[in-house]
Amino acid sequence: MASGDKLFLKGNEAIARGALAAGCQCFFGYPITPQNDIPEYLSKALPDRGGAFVQAESEVAAANMLLGATACGVRAMTSSSSPGISLKQEAISYMAGSELPAIIVNMNRGGPGLGDIGPSQGDYFQSTRGGGHGDYRLLVLAPATCQEAYDLTRESFDLAFQYRNPVMILGDAILGQMKEPVLTAPDRPADPAEARDWSLDGAVGRGPRLLKSLFLQDGALADQNRMLQAKYEAMRAEVRWECFETEDAELVVCAYGTIARIAKSAIRKLRKKGLKVGLFRPITLYPFPSEALAKLVKPGRKFLTVEQNLGQMVEDVRLSLCGLATSEFFSIYPGNLPVPDDFDEPIARALGL
Amino acid sequence: MYQDEELVFSCPQVVADRPTHYCPGCHHGVAHRLVGELLEEMGLVEKTIMVTAIGCSVFLYNYLLVDAVEAPHGRAPAVATGVKRAKPDKFVFTYQGDGDLASIGMAEIMHCANRGERVSVVFVNNTVYGMTGGQMAPTTLIGQKTTTCPGGRCAEREGMPIKMAEIIASLGGSAYVARTALNNVKNINKTKKCLRKAFEVQTSGLGFGFVEVLSACPTNWKMSAIKANERIANEMIPYFPLGVFKDATADVTGEAAGKGEEGK
User: Fold this and answer.
1) B-chain residues within 8 Å CB-CB of A211?
2) Tens of pLDDT along B82-99?
3) Are residues A123 and A225 in the same domain?
4) How many domains does chain A have?
5) Interface predicted TM-score of the whole assembly (ipTM), two decimals
6) Chain A hits for B108, Cβ within 8 Å
7) Which sequence spans correspond to the domains of chain B?
8) pTM of the model
9) CATH number, domain with residue A267
10) Average pLDDT over residues A272-284
11) Which of A68, A94, A209 sits opposite B81 (nearest CB)?
12) Mean of the pLDDT values across residues A107-112?
C-alpha cells in the first residue's frame, strides 16, 4: 500500500492497517464480535508480508502467544472485545510484570457477562486500573475517529517498546464498525535494534537472559514494584488530551472515545444556539490528563462527565478537579447508540437552564 | 589426573554448577541434566529459547543456562507458540509438570500439538502437585492418597488418571510421542534417546515432539527415594505404559506404534 493514500475504512480495519504500518509482525487472535475485521484482515495481510497470524484456541492462549512473541522483541498484537479481554487479563498481568511491549486492542462491547455486541465504555476501570492481578498499569489510548484509531495504533508500538510496557487501544463497537476516510502514513519498519538489550534470541556471546515476573527473594518483589511504579510515573510524559471550545465555556463536557465525538457534534449545535459549552477529551486514559483538566477550573465553570457506562471515568475527573470543582455525571446506557440530541437535556440541566 | 585415568562422566556446561532446591530423590535434576546434555550434544545451546512452567520446575532457569521466559500456569505451549512463530529459527522447548500440562494447561498443550508447532515438550509426570504441597493431580493414580484426596483417589468421584502421551499421539500435528521413566539407569538412558528424537523432529521441521517422563516425588508420596523408584515400576508403569506412541521419522506400523510393551 502506498503511503498517503486516502482510504474509506472501518475502524477495525484502520487499526489492523495501523499495526502493519508500524511493522507488526505477529498477530494472535480469537473470534469475538465486534472486532472480527481485525483478525480477518491480518490473517491475509500478515502472511503476505512474511509475518505470522495464529487463530488461537482461546483468548487465554492468544494473549500468552503474544507474551511469547514479545519476549523475542518482536512487534506483536492481539485484539478482542470485552469478555475476551477478561480472559486475556492473566497474560496481560504477566506481560506487565515481565515488562513486555505488547499491544492489546479492546473494541469494548456491553457487559457485564455476555452483555451484548453494541457499544459500551464499561471497561474503563478494567483498562486503566490494570485489569488483572497485581499493581500494574497499561498505557491506554482511546481513539475517537477511524483516523485516530489508525494513527494511535501505528504509534502504540513505539510507546510499548519505549517503556517496555503493554499498551491498550481502547475503542468500542461504534468505532470498530463505522467507516470513515483515513489518510494512511508511510510504513515504518521496526528498528531491528529496539529490543536488542533485553529480548530473547539465544544466548550467543553473552549470558542467558530471563524474562519473568516471579520474585521470591526477600525484597526482590518490592524492588520490582518500585521500578514499575517509577516507569508508570515516567509514562506521564505521554499524557494527551483535546480541548474543544473550552476557552469561554461555562460548562465543560468531559468524555472520551466515540462518545466524546458525538458530544462534540452536540456542542457544535448548542454553540450555534449561543450556549457556552466546551469539550475536554482525554486521549490517554492512563496516564489520565489530570493537570490539563485541573487547569480548566475557573470560578463558576461547571463540569459534566458523559460516559457510556454507569460512571467510571467520572471518578478520575473528580479526582483531577481536586475539590476545586466537581462534575455532574450523565450515563448513556451500554448497548444503546446515542445521537447528538441525547446530550441536549443533560447539558441544559448541568448549565442550570 | 593419572595417565591411565579416563573421564567417563562430566556435567554439561549448560547446567549451572549450583545446588538445586529439589528434594532428595526428586527426578527433576536427572531430567534437567538429560536436557542439558542434549542441548550441548546437538549444538542447540545458543539457539535455545526455553519456556518454563509453574510448579517445582519453575526454577529451571536457575539450572539451565539458556535464554528463558516464564509462562503462566499451563500456558507454556501457547507462549512457546508465540516464541516459535516470532523466531522460527530458534530451538524452543517447554518443561512442564502434570498439574500444569494435564489440568490447567490441557487446552494449550492439545492445540499446540494439533497445530504441529515446531516445538518440543518435556512432560514430567509424578502424579502429584509438588510445589503447592502434594495435592491431587490429573495423573494421580487410583487409590493414591494426596492432601486433597486423603482417602485415596476414587474413580467415581475424581475420574481416571489422564494418559497424556496417548492423547497427544492421537492428534494430527504430533510427530514424535513417547513415554519413558527415570526410575533406573536403563530407563534414564532410554529417556535421553526419546528426548533426542523429540528435539530432532523440531530441528528437522517435522512437527511437534512430546516425551512424558514418569518421575518420582518422594516427599509428596511420603516414601524413601528407593521406594519411590519401586513405585514407578510397580504402580505407575502398569497404568502408564512406556513406549513410543508415535514416530513420524520411522515407518510406524503395527507393533512399533502405540504399544506399551517396554519393561519396567
Assistant:
1) 68-70
2) 999 999 999 999 999 999
3) yes
4) 2
5) 0.96
6) 57, 60-61, 64
7) 28-256
8) 0.95
9) 3.40.50.920
10) 97
11) A68
12) 96
Question: Which of B45, B68, B111 lies nearest to residue A61, judging by beta carbons?
Answer: B111
B54-70 tens-digit pLDDT: 999 999 999 999 999 99
pLDDT digits (tens, 9 = 90+) for A206-241: 999 999 999 999 999 999 999 999 999 999 999 999
- Percent of residues, chain A, with pLDDT higher than 70: 99
Q: In what order do the strands lie in the sheet with A139-141?
A: A52-55, A26-29, A76-80, A103-108, A167-172, A139-141, A284-286
Spell out which residues of chain A touch residue B61, defining contact as CB-CB under 8 Å: 208, 210, 212
Domain range for A317: 242-350
pLDDT of residue B256: 44
- Predicted confidence band of residue B263 (pLDDT cuts 50, 70, 90): very low
Round to whole Å and give the CA distance between B200 and B120. Answer: 9
Domain B28-256 has CATH 3.90.1170.30: no
User: Is A179 among the domain residues?
Assistant: yes
Nearest CA in chain B to A93: B72
